[in-house]
Amino acid sequence: MKLFKLFFLSFLFVIGINSCQNKTTDNIKTSKQTNNPFDVQIKKLLSKMTLEEKIGQLNMLSGDWSVTGPTIRSNVAKEIKEGHVGAMLNSYTAAYTRKLMELAVDSTRLGIPLLFGYDVIHGMRTIFPIPLGESCSWDLKLIEKSARIAAIEASAEGVDWTFAPMVDISRDPRWGRVMEGAGEDPWYGSLVAKARVKGFQGSNLSSDSTILACVKHGVAYGAPIAGRDYNTVDMSKRTLLGVYLPPYHAAVEAGVATAMTAFNDLNGTPCTANGWIWNNLYRKQWGFKGFVVSDYTAINELVPHGVAKNLFDADVLAFNAGVDMDMMGEGYISNLKKAVAEGLVSEKEINRSVYRILKAKFELGLFKNPYKYSNEQREKNDLMTPEHLAFARKDARESIVLLKNNEHLLPLSKKIKSIAIIGPLGDNKYNMLGAWSAAGDRYKDPVTLLEGVKNKLGNRVKIRYAQGTGFNTKSTKGFQKAINLAKNSDVVLLAVGESNDMSGEASSRAYLNLPGNQNDLVDAILKVNKKTVIILMNGRPLTISHLAKVAPAILETWFAGTEAGNAIADVVFGDYNPSGKLTMTFPRNVGQIPIFYSHMNTGRPFSPSNHYTSKYIDSPNSPLYPFGFGLSYTTFKYDSLSISKQEITTKDTLRVSVVLKNTGNYDGTEVAQLYIRDLVGSVTRPVKELRGFRKVFLRKGESKKLIFKLTNKDLSFYRKDMTFGSEPGRFYVFVGGNSNTEYKRSFWLK
Ligand code: BGC
After folding, report:
1. Which atom of ligand 1 is nearest to the CA of 263?
2. What pLDDT does residue 34 have?
3. How much is the pLDDT for 60?
4. Is 347 in a helix, a strand, or coil?
5. Closest Cα to residue 144, out of 198, 183, 190, 186?
């Protein structure tokens, strides 16, 4: 405890240095709350509420689904009617939310409306690529728009609050939840976080189609030891501040309305009991104005974490740490009244939490019309519209990454006579959407690869399918049929990867190879047909060294969502030239993990001629595919890299320009990336850090001059004394098509 206090105090010190605000939490409350147009109404309502009614607002329960549809458990109905519920989880459809809302509005003394929260992570009914895949598009407008459409569809089904964006940086693909985030890079992750908040919330929360966003999880949930979900996070202050915190901060800067805690402990304190995170970092330092919800029963889990001896103590700890709402734990509702009576929690603090929650309800316009999101007509009109589906197809196409393409095997000609679709993911609707697919109907909605190819080629071509094998089986029963089919087809699309439930929450893996005997199937098919394209579907970077060696062409398609099959067919047959670039490094083997491009140089960087340098004796250090990597059907050349000045001051903006030329035979889109390296610092600095990118379309033969700008902020970091700023000295600036680029110039910061 003493140690924690020391740690906590040093954090306060560090953060204090950077802070321009030096206000007490109370001052902050007053200034923020008086800015709020609903201040008078909220205070008036608060003054009428009993302590029990106030605590009710801090409680979130869940809706239920039976085979026939949503149901209301009698105890949940009773709790709502008694004013013991502020928000509902897993409750959607216009009719269902209306029924639940009626219980709150008609039966409680004050008729305070409920919030309806749901995990709208990559679409509501129209499902977009998993966020990790979508981040490979490097298209912030596209990312914002997918969140926008998700909000339109969610709000048409009664949902006014999404538990997204998930912005946890992760450098460990064993962790199954990497599929929900934007990959390994804090700078890019921050831009994606902002785009997604903007997409969900729009510029006006009171509109009918915008919803509250929720940045999650806590902080640093993406770095569990050994990649095992829910595991401890143990991290230096410098890494926390410099690498893991920026995307949460970015979401707050973008005005995110709510934040969620995390299941993990961080340096000894569970995130859900960490007052430094919520009261200090989020609220004081970052000026977060929304409310904080616990992750699912995360308050209760303070007991097994071993920081509370019972639920009562856990509730007191979490509440005083700044957690406003209890998701599913039912602890606040049982214990906070007693905690107030015993003086362990103050009613003033409860008022403050209730204020924040009521403010969200006012901002959404629920007090004007509690049923505004339960709109059957909109539910009929606004889901899976042709426009949403067309966008989903575009989004999916842009998320696909071409990893290998020997001898221009891709794109395939549409004039082929026959094609074999083989593999456990060749015609498998259920597994196309990936985890967290909200209201997407996995039995019905997704377009499979087989369907996509049929849609594209019609009856002109003989299109046949054989599963070959399952996801995770040793049985080779299906092999022969698939081999025969491959033998008798011009080309093969071999769809392998993970099943839908192998990534996502609680789905960490210790082995990242293609599961079961899928590699054997690949070998067997390649033996009889060399024109085999691997279509990967998966929720994380996999260790596919074997595939990379034997297969002539590999397309990483992630879980591409409702329109997956059509989008993959667009890419395979050249109607879209792939442009995706990896936002997470692909390791060669699990032993290399955690692996990321932005590592330190070490005192003994690897040298092949010196045994005593940093390396493995049984594996290269380099990844299989680096961050930022992705091929195109065309080729690009970077030329004439130049900088506007050799020497700059902290006030200057450095202009970096490069000429990008499409040197191949197809029109195509390139994501040009800019990285920096600070050569000497008061602390060690990464060998590369992303600081810019441009996504550009070039016709074949076309060139374009690209301009990037670097400011002092781009050169800044947490220095030895933990202040944030730059240091004078020499820098490299690199430009290229992935993080391996060595095309560079150098400049001095005075
Ligand atoms: C997850 C959250 C999610 C919540 C509600 C938890 O298990 O960690 O990300 O928002 O459930 O479904």
Report:
1. 8
2. 53
3. 97
4. helix
5. 198
- 3-state class (DSSP) for residue 100: helix
CA distance 98 to 208: 15
Residue 251 has pLDDT above 50, yes or no: yes
∠ CA 28-30-32, rounded to 5°: 65
pTM of the model: 0.95
307 CB neighbour count, 10 Å cutoff = 20
For ligand 1, the distance from its centroid to the CA atom of residue 507, given in whole angstroms, is 13
- Ligand 1 atom closest to the Cα of residue 163 is 10
The CB of 102 under 6 Å from ligand 1? The reply is no
How confident is the model over 687-701, as pLDDT tens digits? 999 999 999 999 999
Q: Is the CB of 163 under 6 A from ligand 1?
A: yes
Order of strands across the sheet that contains 532-537:
401-405, 553-556, 532-537, 491-497, 418-422, 462-466
Of ligand 1's atoms, which has the minimum distance to the CA of residue 117? 5
Protein residue closest via CA to atom 12 of ligand 1: 119
Residues 289-334 have pLDDT tens digits of 999 999 999 999 999 999 999 999 999 999 999 999 999 999 999 9
Nearest CA to 612 among 623, 599, 602?
A: 602
Residue 325 CA to residue 439 CA, distance in Å, equals 24
Cα–Cα distance, 453 to 423 (Å, whole number) = 14
Q: Is the CB of 505 under 6 A from ligand 1?
A: yes
Q: Could you read off the pLDDT of 538-585 as tens digits, one per residue? A: 999 999 999 999 999 999 999 999 999 999 999 999 999 999 999 999
Atom number, ligand 1, closest to the C-alpha of residue 217: 9
Whose alpha carbon is nearest atom 10 of ligand 1?
Answer: 163
Contacts of residue 605, defined as CB under 8 A and 6 or more positions apart, other chains included, come to 613, 614
* CB of 648 closer than 8 Å to CB of 750: yes
Candidates 295, 313, 315, 445; catalytic one: 295
Q: Is 229 in the active site? A: no
Query: Best substitution site from 295, 297, 508 to test ligand 1's pocket, by max atoms within 8 Å of Cβ?
Result: 295
Alpha-carbon span 447 to 430, nearest angstrom: 10
Condensed to tens digits (0 to 9), the pLDDT of residues 369-388 reads 999 999 999 999 999 999 99
Tell me the CA–centroid distance for residue 216 and ligand 1, in Å: 9
Phi-psi category of residue 202: left, alpha or beta, with phi > 0 → left and psi -120 to 50 → alpha:
left
DSSP code of residue 279 = I
Alpha-carbon span 336 to 316, nearest angstrom:
7
The answer to whether 545 and 565 are in contact (CB under 8 A) is no
CA of 139 to the centre of ligand 1 (A): 26
229 CB within 6 A, ligand 1: no
| pLDDT tens-place string over residues 655-689 | 999 999 999 999 999 999 999 999 999 999 999 99
In the structure, what pLDDT confidence band is assigned to residue 71 with cuts at 50, 70 and 90? Answer: confident
Over range 588-611, report the average pLDDT.
Answer: 98
pLDDT band at residue 68 using 50, 70 and 90 as cut-offs: confident
CA 75 – CA 77 distance, rounded (Å): 5
